[in-house]
Known about the structure:
The chain has 119 residues and is of the alpha+beta class. The chain has a single domain, classed as Heat shock protein 90, C-terminal domain (Four Helix Bundle (Hemerythrin (Met), subunit A)). 43% of the residues lie in helices and 13% in strands. The chain has a 3-stranded mixed β-sheet. Belongs to the heat shock protein 90 family.
Amino acid sequence: LVSVTKEGLELPEDDAEKKKREEDKAKFESLCKLMKSILDNKVEKVVVSNRLVDSPCCIVTSQFGWSANMERIMKAQALRDTATMGYMAGKKQLEINPDHPIVETLRQKADADKNDKAV
């Protein structure tokens, strides 16, 4: 069993899908760097996703930290240890959907003006 809310999800792909994913990574590299610089203290990295179909983006947790649901449960505990919360609740990873029109529009704006923080 593999958690789909954590990074590192490997979905089966054929050669055409792998080639498209590599092209998308290269195409959206500048947008990923810009979004990472804007969201620097909130996310660990911004990557192009192959798990998204309808959504423009999603947040996933690190592979070895708590899942988002476990973080929610631990925050709700009355006698929680705050030192453990900072240790186990790692930074998140933002995954963007290269096929979504919103993300494509953001890429075009980022390519037009590299210093545009409105992205």
